[in-house]
Amino acid sequence: MRKFLTSTLAVGTAALLALSACGSSEREGDTAGNPSGAAKGFAKDALIGVALPSKTSENWVLAGDLFTNGLKEAGFKSDVQYAGASTTVADQQSQITAMITKGAKVIVIGATDAAQLGTQVKQAKEAGAVVVAYDRLITGTADLDYYVAFDNFKVGQLQGQALLDGMKAKKATGPWTIELFSGSPDDNNSGVFFNGAMEVLKPLIDKGEVVVGSGQTDVKQTATQGWKAENAQSRMDSLLTSTYSSGKTLDGVLSPNDTLARAIITSVKGAGKPVPVVTGQDSEVESVKSIMAGEQYSTINKDTRKLVAETINMVKALQAGTDPTINDTKSYNNGSKVVPSYLLAPVIVTKANAAQAYADDPKLGPLTK
Ligand code: GAL
């Protein structure tokens, strides 16, 4: 509650409120919800449904594989589905309905559109299935049972701080000129990331130490529909033409994830400009290489292996008829209830700590040697 309210009030712009209103959670509340199903338990080889969004970043691809293998290893049957690339909302809705029909006991959902799943979550609950929001909160429904995620507000704070640290390392004193990008407005996380980052940046913007060169802080301007790289790249192209063609220096860009960070860097390089400090998220292979090469400044390590493992632990507890482990009962209000959550801590990664951060990651460790 503290963090969300502070950030919202601190930013206080119509733009940020609009972003919040179109899907971000309030991290505030009083009591935990009252999850269904926990006391009952179910068969050890029950069907577990996993409905993931389209593959907009590497973490989603990895999550699907890890759920398929991990649920099998734990003795469950699984039905792991991705929403398609274009008709994502309708795809995901019908996939969830099919899982309910097949008798899934737990349905894990990485929502493609936070606000469009209330009917399906209600149907699941009525059929006796427990619904777990994975990574992205589902909004506007009291029927959601649990949320398992990295603390995504913290992700935004770390991104905002990394942007400042990176700019200060290049130029000790301000003012620094930046541009802001946010994720897809249908993803609840987009507002949470943005609010977290703005909690750090807004006080400096107010003091004039940080200047948003284009003045574009409205969600309609900063949003990246569908988390698509081409949308971020074309917006950056336009910003460079409108605001930086006469030689003004761009010191930093707040990018909510790695896919968009690389698109922004491609745009800047294409315009023949020096690469500014650009933040990211997801520890994507190409971005970790870019960080080691001194281009992208930072990413966030939200280890998908841990997130899937915690979700499967929750499924195991529900199977045994016990209460799953929850470590947060106040931060993520989905508009209808405060959702009992298991939150993991994200880690900021720059060139300075990449080797340590990815030491046990078979895919990323070697890139940092
Ligand atoms: C978010 C997720 C990020 C990133 C983004 C785009 O919801 O938390 O890690 O993957 O989707 O796919």
From TrEMBL:
Determine if Magnesium is one of this entry's keywords: no
Q: Domain of life, per the record?
A: Bacteria
Q: Does the keyword Signal apply?
A: yes
Stored Gene3D superfamilies: 3.40.50.2300
Where is the major localization of this protein?
A: other
Cite the entry's keywords alphabetically: Signal
Compartments where found? Cell envelope
Entries under Pfam families matching the protein? Peripla_BP_4
Q: What residue stretch is flagged as signal peptide? A: 1-23
Entry-linked InterPro entries: Bact_Solute-Bind_Prot2 (IPR050555), Peripla_BP_I (IPR028082), SBP_2_dom (IPR025997)
Which intervals hold domain Periplasmic binding protein? 48-322
What name is this protein filed under? Sugar ABC transporter substrate-binding protein
User: What is the organism of origin for this protein?
Assistant: Dactylosporangium fulvum
**Encoded by which gene?**
chvE
